[in-house]
Each structure stands twice: as structure tokens, then as C-alpha cells.
Amino acid sequence: MPQAAAAGAEVPVPAAAPAPSSSCRPSAAPIPHNIDFRPACAADTAAAAAMFAAAFEEDPEIQYIYKGVKQHQYKPAVQALYSKCTRLFFCRKGCPSWCAIDAATQELIGAASITPLKAYPGLLTYATHGLLLGRQWPSLSCLRRMWQTSDASEAAEEHPHLGITAELSFLGVTPAYQGRGVGRQLLQAILAAWDAQQGGPLILYTAQSKALGLYQSQGFEVLEVQEIGGAQLTIWYMHRPQLQP
């Protein structure tokens, strides 16, 4: 299931996640100072879903999944997908979630979430949350490509010696604030909270090469690189060991 592992990442080192998307670009505008970072709550879910849909509309993974979809179907499908995914993963019990709020407007401009592997939903849960059928799949080909793309929990199981306990499953910033340091500060905030509770090693995946530098600056290392659809899509899996107290 597509995850938002990093929209709006700054780019100190060219190197990727669901474009996520062309939403990753070098910092140009000044870093805003009126942004509050706090734990997210259930009331933030709808705003986070809308933000993720906008942040990842041009994500390489999303573009691969919806390849060939008519223009008038594309945006509604992406919005439906992130609406359902966010309701399932964001602020899920036992899944730490954080958000970035513009203090002047109280607009949610960024969000991040960590999903422990033991809390990862199964196929039945996907079905009951409407993720296997619905407006998010204009064709069966889209659904088929989604299942081809990535599976962080499976990747973690292939490396048992790393002791990975959770996935950084969401990290996104609204387009107007991308490239201004918000994504970096949000990532630092959720990782600090995770480390404070001795959360354990993390995994993430991204389809954005430009996001690799951001993740590497926060302790992630490339674990493996996967080519999908005859190299139409490249997925980077990254691992971050548990920090020692």
C-alpha cells in the first residue's frame, strides 16, 4: 500500500520516496518561524489526508500506479486513496503521529506517522476499510500495480538481524511549504519522540532519490534498491538503527 514517506524533503545530497514526488526540491524560500510541531490527534486525520493527497499527487510511485488513467480520474483517485490510507494508518492506536501547524492560520501543513510492524493491518483490514475496492482504483491495472510497488514490513522480515520494529510510514508537507525546512523539522520531531520511548530500529521506503539526503542526515542508511515494472519505478528501502541512550 502506498505510503507517504517524504514529500517536501530538502535536498542536501541528491540521492529518493513516493515522489515521494517532484514535491522534493532544494530549500529556496526562508524557513518559516511560525510553525508549531505537536503530536497529532484523531481530529487532524481529515486535514492530513487532504494534505497527503496534494503532496504526493506527482509522486513517482503514485504516477506508476495510476499510469494511463484519464486526467479527470487521476486526482479524485489519489484523493480517495489517501483519504482511506490516512484513516487506516494515521493516529492508529500504538502508531505515533505528529503534525506541523501554521500558527497564524492553524492550517495543518505537514504530518508524519510511524507504524509498528506488529500493528500493521492485514488484508482483511484493508478490505473492511474499503481499500481493495472503490474510487481509488479506476481500473484493475491500478490495483495490480499498487500490490507490485512496495512492502516495508516484508522487507524488514528479510533482514531479521536488524531487529526492525516499525516503519516511518508517512511524512508529507503541503506543496506551498515544501523546500523550506518544514519536512526536516517534522522528521526530527517524530524521531525524537520515537527515540525517547526506546521505539527501536525503523524502516522506510521512498521513490524519491532527492529525499535520500534528508533521511541520511537523520541516521537512515540505504538497505536495498528495488526496480519495479521493468525499471519504470525505483524504490529505496532505508533502515535506521535504534539510537543508544
From TrEMBL:
It comes from the Eukaryota. Gene3D superfamilies: 3.40.630.30. InterPro entries: Acyl_CoA_acyltransferase, GNAT_dom, Trichothecene_AcTrans. Residues 35-243 form the N-acetyltransferase domain. One of its GO terms (molecular function) is acyltransferase activity, transferring groups other than amino-acyl groups. It holds the Pfam family Acetyltransf_7. This is N-acetyltransferase domain-containing protein. It comes from Tetradesmus obliquus.
